[in-house]
Design a protein that fits this description.
The structure holds 2 protein chains of 2 kinds. Chain A is mostly helical. Chain A contains 12 helices and 5 strands. The longest helix of chain B has 18 residues, at 169-186. Chain B folds into 2 domains: 6-223, P-loop containing nucleotide triphosphate hydrolases (Rossmann fold); 239-370, OB fold (Dihydrolipoamide Acetyltransferase, E2P) (Beta Barrel), CATH 2.40.50. By secondary structure, chain B is α+β, with helices and mostly antiparallel strands. Classes of the chains: A mainly alpha, B alpha+beta. The interface between A and B is medium-sized, with 23 and 31 residues.
């Protein structure tokens, strides 16, 4: 009974800040808002009146809107323009995740290596940027890479031509990799730290060279960390909008930017909510697939991926 | 010199923190030998094993395999396999996959490997366990899988690092017999590490007693037990009474306030020595018929130990541990006799009973607490 009572604040929180907003998003997502229907009536004296559905007449044009259930926004999303945007978002997120994995895996491997001395210091350095504001970090990249930025000054000083670093896809990926890398390194580090070193010694003892030890011991054991790292990077990378706006200068809009626009400039909460829902469905499907791969590997002791 | 399979030459290991784990070890291991490194924790026995296995590089010295230095070879290039203390089986593979790990790495024919795996499982008494998950096995079974996984590679030497340490007493006794059988049947040289003197005496052809990174004594189990070279070995191997004494002349020792006849010589005259008496070699006699020259004492305590009674007898300032099948009540006065061949004389060492702060400890049996 007491345990249940202690759960209450959490349940309240859950309901208030997760379920209710989610319900609102769903509500907005499957409805459209339109002006209430009316007829324009030209009087004999030339004045215009408006007749509403219930028969009342108005002298001014009706301003009210009504909300009704409709999946029109869903079909609107499947317009090639939005599908392309979604595709680009996934592509950029995929590149980001891949680069994070390629960079993060060796880092985690080195950090957990036997006899590595400055482990805690390096771990701190990896986490340190996360303590600084995310926008600030991205602006820092802007001032480094912009056309009159530090890097271009250096290039010019060394006699090279100026480079256009910003405002295309690569810049967006760079910004994302920079911001999301710790989310890849940390789960990998946590998993690799737990790998029993005697397993590696046993493999070496039985004749496995370093590469074989990696394939047969390290990789299978670190796989849960890889999957978690992918989730931690991929999901926010699909939905981010700030990085693409800053690093891409608005030239590389991602699905997150379009959603944000709907709630901002375009003021079409319904379409924004629909897009949010659809992205969520795709992300959930992706996570489900990853999770299955994970449990299939971790669940049974005998599964061998190679 | 290459009649030895493995030779350790002046092997020294100083860790980064300055701790000397091995201090100039010289050892040789012959083909088909069951050699045990025995000693308390921190004596350097596991370090020695790791150096032979290639998991660490010595600070100085050399490891020879058939006369050739292998000190710079990584573990996977040595024809040596290890059974690890905690087995280190691969939890993501089943029993057969674990055992086939080595052959698979060598890309051996799958059918041939399967046949060898079955043979190995038969050898370690786990016929039909191929598909079992490692986590579903008991400690003793995991132990056997670890041995099979190592032996399938037909190593020149099998290194075993306290492999029975995690098993309960009954299983340990069974595995001692099993290990010896496997060693004899496979004909593979075993280099075994343990802190359990009983284990060492039961299985080994040769026992190496180590302490503080140095070899104390090398010999057959009988040699080590009957002729310990110093108080440390005597104390570590089995229960013993270590008394301060004097060598009056060759074959005449003085201890317990009385002169005794013994068989040792070459210590000089009036030389201070340590005298080792095994508890089962000390005979208690009734005081009814006085024996000339026999020290007298009083039984302090009597404990029933199953096969024998363990008694403490105070003789002057000394206290003796005595094993006998004949119980005597505490308070009974007794006479003490020891056969000359049962008196073992050793030179003084820092483990001597009269060395500072060691007197009491040395008189206590230490084997029980290690069980």
């Amino acid at each position: 009974m007491r345990a249940k009572a202690m759960l209450l604040p959490f349940l309240l929180w859950l309901a208030l800040f997760i379920l209710v907003p989610l319900g609102l998003v769903v509500y907005y997502g499957v409805t459209v808002e339109e002006p209430i229907p009316y007829e324009e009536i030209m009087r004999a004296d030339g004045s215009v009146h408006y007749r509403l559905a219930d028969g009342t007449l108005r002298e001014s044009e009706p301003y009210e809107t009504r909300t009704r259930f409709s999946l029109a926004n869903v079909s609107r999303f499947f317009d090639p323009m939005y599908v392309k945007l979604m595709g680009r978002s996934f592509y950029v997120a995929f590149c980001t995740t891949l680069i994070c994995l390629l960079l993060g895996y060796p880092v985690a491997l080195i950090l957990t290596g036997k006899g590595f001395r400055h482990r805690n210091l390096l771990l701190l350095l990896i986490i340190l940027p996360m303590w600084m504001n995310f926008l600030l970090r991205t602006y820092a990249w802007l001032s480094l890479l912009e056309n009159s930025g530090l890097v271009n000054h250096l290039l010019e000083a060394m006699g090279f031509a100026k480079q256009q670093f910003l405002y295309h896809e690569n810049a967006v990926v760079l910004g994302m990799v920079y911001n999301f890398l710790p989310f890849m390194v940390l789960p990998l580090y946590t998993v690799m730290e737990k790998i029993d070193h005697s397993q590696l010694e046993a493999a070496a003892d039985l004749g496995a060279n370093p590469f074989q030890r990696f394939l047969r011991i390290l990789l299978p054991f670190s796989l849960p960390g890889v999957l978690e790292g992918i989730t931690m990077v991929f999901v926010p990378a699909v939905t981010t909008f700030v990085i693409s706006q800053l690093m891409g200068g608005g030239k590389v809009p991602l699905i997150g930017d379009i959603i944000q626009q709907q709630f901002g400039k375009a003021n079409d909460w319904h379409f924004g909510a629909t897009m949010s829902l659809l992205v969520m469905v795709v992300v959930l499907a992706f996570m489900y697939a990853l999770n299955r791969a994970d449990t299939e590997n971790a669940g049974k002791g005998e599964v061998r991926i190679w | 010199m290459s009649e030895h399979l493995i030779e350790l030459k002046d092997l020294t290991m100083v860790f980064e923190d300055g701790y000397t784990a091995l201090d100039g070890i010289n050892l040789s291991l012959n083909r088909n030998e069951f050699l045990t490194l025995l000693g308390p924790s921190g004596c350097g026995k596991t370090t020695t094993l790791r150096l032979v296995g290639g998991f660490a590089a010595p600070t100085s010295g050399d490891v020879l395999y058939m006369g050739k230095s292998i000190v710079h070879l990584p573990p996977y290039k040595r024809n040596i396999n290890t059974v690890f203390q905690r087995y280190a089986l691969f939890p993501h593979m089943n029993v057969a996959q674990n055992i086939a790990f080595g052959p698979d790495l060598r890309r051996q024919d799958k059918r041939e490997t399967a046949r060898q795996v079955a043979d190995m499982l038969a050898l370690v008494g786990l016929r039909g366990f191929e598909k079992r998950a490692v986590a579903s096995l008991s400690g003793g079974q995991q132990q056997r899988v670890a041995i099979a996984r190592a032996l399938i590679n037909k190593p020149a030497v099998l290194l075993l690092d306290e492999p029975l340490g995690a098993l309960d007493l009954k299983l340990r006794k069974e595995m001692q017999v099993e290990l010896k059988r496997i060693q004899v049947e496979s004909g593979i040289t075993f280099l075994y590490v343990t802190h359990d003197q009983e284990e060492a005496l039961t299985m080994s052809d040769t026992v190496v007693v180590m302490r503080g990174g140095q070899v104390q004594q090398v010999g057959t189990p009988q040699d080590i037990y009957n002729e310990p070279v110093n108080a440390f070995v005597a104390d570590f191997i089995g229960e013993s009474n270590i008394l301060a004494g004097t060598m009056i002349a060759d074959r005449r020792a003085f201890f317990l306030g009385h002169p005794f006849e013994c068989v040792d010589s070459g210590f000089g005259e009036d030389a201070p020595v340590d005298v080792v008496l095994r508890p089962e070699d000390v005979k208690l006699k009734s005081v009814d018929a006085p024996i000339p020259g026999a020290p007298r004492g009083v039984v302090i305590s009597t404990l029933f130990k199953g096969v024998h009674y363990e008694m403490r007898v105070s003789v002057g300032a000394d206290e003796l541990l005595v094993h006998s099948t004949h119980a005597r009540e505490p308070g009974t006065p007794v006479q003490i006799t020891v056969a000359p061949s049962d008196i073992q004389i050793m030179r003084k060492s820092d483990m001597s009973p009269d060395a500072p702060a060691r007197a009491e400890e040395a008189a206590l049996p230490i084997s029980d607490e290690r069980m």
